[in-house]
Amino acid sequence: MAYVARKIPFVGTPETNPETKPFFDGAAAGKLMLRRCTSCKKAHHYPRALCPFCFGECEWEQASGKAKIYTISVMERANPPYAIGYATLAEGPTVLTNFIDCDFKALKIGQDVTVKFVQTEGEGPSLPFFTPA
Amino acid sequence: MSLKGAAYIAGAWEHPTRKAPDKSIAMLHAECAKGALEDAGLTKDDVDGYFCAGDAPGALGPLSMVDYLNLKCRHVDSTDVGGSSYQVAVGHAMESIAAGRCNVALITLAGRPRSEGQATGTAPRPGNPSVPEMQFEFPYGPATANLYGMCAARHMYEYGTTSEQLAWIKVAASHHAQYNPNAMLRDVVTVEDVVNSPMVSTPLHRLDCCVISDGGGALILTRPEIAKSLKRPLVKVIGVGESPKHQAGGEIDLTFSAARWSGPPAWEMAGIKPSDIKYASIYDSFTITVLMQLEDLGFCKKGEGGKFVSDGNLIAGVGKLPFNTDGGGLCSNHPANRGGITKIIEAVRQLRGEAHPKLQVANCDLAIAHGTGGALGTRHCGSTVILERE
User: Fold this and answer.
1) For residue B190, which phi and psi values (nearest 5 degrees)?
2) pLDDT tens figures, B69-110
3) At how many degrees (to 10) do helices B287-296 and B259-270 cross?
4) Taking CB atoms and an 8 Å limit, are A10 and B145 in contact across chains?
5) Among A6, A96, A109, whose Cβ lies nearest the Cβ of B137?
């Protein structure tokens, strides 16, 4: 099936939760921002103030944007259909996303994908999506 | 001190309705409460503990409901972990009874998503943006069907599970539902019917999904001496376990459910193993939910669920593990989009010898009723209840 873009909804604003505002600021500049712990050195997602592994202090870093498809489900009942899934970032964390600008039938678990930013509807913030590399 | 046997299920009642546009949600809760009390041979004045979850109307947990029902309680609890809340409530009620905080615990569930036209499985539901995951998930369109579809896709990738194997779960449920006059879907279906039904979210077809129904149910738990003074068969709670599972900061593994963690404490408390179970109520929001929970509860090895459920192995009188003999959520009832309580009610029917004669398991003395609430693909709670007929 030919790919048809859907409108991406968003709730709240990038200011709703101050701790995650840098994520949205990064996305607006085309950067996928990730939190990494200064103590245990592990990266996590979705972003938290404190490290979810050790409660250590975290810093923002720019992720490579490279990932592999962990799983996919194509929501065929939706109009237009969309491909929701998880992508495992090169930096470690597995993140919820949509796979876009592609033939859904050709998507495979394990496939290399790369980040692509899309603005949410109503002049909302941009968010990271993934497309085949 | 083990809580094994500290409480008995003295009353269990499922509302016969599947569509109730003329009833309020509070009214459905009340009708279920009345039904369960009559089943137990108790009255409303005997209730001194009340347990409900997020389906109960009112922002302050149980307060609106104890007011509406006019209950004089010493103990209330409204732990909400979605459809698994009622298994959790059984455990919490048993703890409360053992601690002397109540003698007769009432648990109710009711709702009417069907009358309200809710697109339960296919419409992403926006929530409060201050919920920490909301802005990182809602934009991507998480709906119940695709959150389970993602688990099924990964299970197929890791273990070679097939759509035909998943379909056998629906086939078994439909064989049971044909004998339930209240079931929404009473036609027996085949594997071909399931895999040829319209795709909802890959790899799950329409017939891999549960029904959307109005209705409800209620349970009465009491301390042993009260249960033994009543006239109903004795159903003892011998094992409980509960555990949440989530995204773990991004260390995601969708190949197993929280049953992997809620099961072991329940088996240990009960002092039995999966092969001792004569009847299993397994939460069936989708076919994949059943398959993963059966593996995680230890009925078969991880990855072998597809083989285990095939060829009618879950059909009463045919296979080794009769499951959901009321037709389950897949064919009979999923009131308030929460199937936990109906799982316990059918297990009680089997232990009492009150299941449909065509589906009654012979000498049914040990049963399990396992719930999953929330979404397997993001965060959910698993809760396990093991029951024994005394």
Assistant:
1) -110, 170
2) 999 999 999 999 999 999 999 999 999 999 999 999 999 999
3) 50
4) no
5) A96
Phi, psi of B383 (to 5 degrees): -145, 135
* Of A87, A96, A88, A37, nearest in space to A61 by CA: A37
Probe site for chain A from B200, B201, B207, B212 (most A CB atoms < 10 A): B201
> How much is the pLDDT for B245?
98
**CB-based contact A26:A54 (threshold 8 Å):** no
Closest-CA residue of A relative to B204 is A73
C-alpha angle with apex B298: B295 to B301, nearest 5 degrees? 55
Give the pair of three-digit tokens for residue B11. 């009353």
A25 contacts A31 by C-beta, under 8 angstroms = no
Beta A126-132 vs A82-89: how paired, if at all?
unpaired
Beta bridge partners of A66: A114
Cβ–Cβ contact B203 with A under 8 A: yes
- Asked if B122 has any chain A CB less than 8 Å from its own CB, the reply is yes
Chain A positions touching B203 (Cβ under 8 A) are 73
